[in-house]
Design a protein that fits this description.
The protein has 324 residues and is an alpha/beta fold. It folds into 2 domains: 3-238, Aldolase class I (TIM Barrel, Alpha-Beta Barrel), CATH 3.20.20; 246-318, Dihydrouridine synthase, C-terminal recognition domain (Bacteriocin As-48, Chain A). Helices cover 44% and strands 12% of the residues. The protein contains 14 helices and 8 strands. The protein has helices at 14-23, 43-49, 74-86, 101-105, 116-129, 150-160, 182-191, 205-215, 224-228, 232-238, 246-263, 266-280, 285-294, 300-307; strands at residues 3-5, 28-35, 65-70, 92-96, 136-141, 164-168, 196-199, 220-222. The chain has an 8-stranded parallel β-barrel with strand order 1-2-3-4-5-6-7-8, surrounded by 6 helices. The longest helix is centred in the last third of the chain and has 18 residues, at 246-263. The radius of gyration is 19 Å and the shape is globular.
Length: 324
Amino acid sequence: MTILLAPMEGLLDFALRDVLTRVGGIDRCVSEFIRVTGTLLPERAFRRVVPELDHGCRTPAGVPVRPQLMGSDPVCLAENAARLADMGAEGIDLNFGCPAKVVNRHGGGAALLREPELMHAIVAAVRRAVPARVPVSAKMRLGFDDGSVAEDCARALAAAGASEIVVHARTRADGYRPPAYWHRVADVRAAVSVPVVANGEIWTVDDARRCRAESGGVALMLGRGMVANPGLARAILKDDAAQLNWAELHTLLCVFWTLIVAHIEPRSRAGRLKQWLNYLRRTHPEAEAAYQQVRTLTDSREVARLLGLPSTPAPHAAALPAAA
């Protein structure tokens, strides 16, 4: 079974990728989207989102990270993909699923699901621009307003050279509201010959079992479920619903906080920690108690003191360590 860690804008950044991949079970990560709007981005723009580029495109645990590009201009996306490949990216992922209105108004993300021909042109241009050894994958939803075009969109991606398609089993109109329509992933799988990965509403081991049964596949992408339960991927592989205990989770929180203190400006640190605790409290009572303790605080030093977290960055956190 292959398990991927999803791109989640504003949440699943390099710090959470580092922490979550330490637990085990994740085969590959996809970065948050890098927005391309008509210009060739400087290398620092890519490193800001994917600092793992300087470390073999791996997290410190050795898990590969695939940068994701989002945009609607085939030529510009191809140029940026080529630069990423030159920087050492071992794969390029393309975003055809972001439901954000500000993105869709500018023709990006899920808005492209209304134009399968343009989706084809984007993937084909990127495929031509990067070396053959660099896979080009794509993440899509079932559609924009409805799911009637899902198979057409997937065929367009596969015909253009996409080596793998992740299907978030909801439309843009569905947003993140349950349910996810996993059975429609099976329809997409039947329409193309490339691997198809199921994504959406996988919170538990039982969800993973049902998703695999309904989608007809074995590959999964985990997003919010993994953030809420960092042991989820490992549990799915073991087919065992056991969760991390609080001591294990607190160790991960300390690592996360160390990275945040080293890399995030002080005024944003408390908010980042509370954001993760807000997810963790879905599955861990101790996280609920911790969240309530710090919910109204903005001083990162006070937050660290109350939760028993490091108040200063450890020496190794100043930069990502090189991959083993």
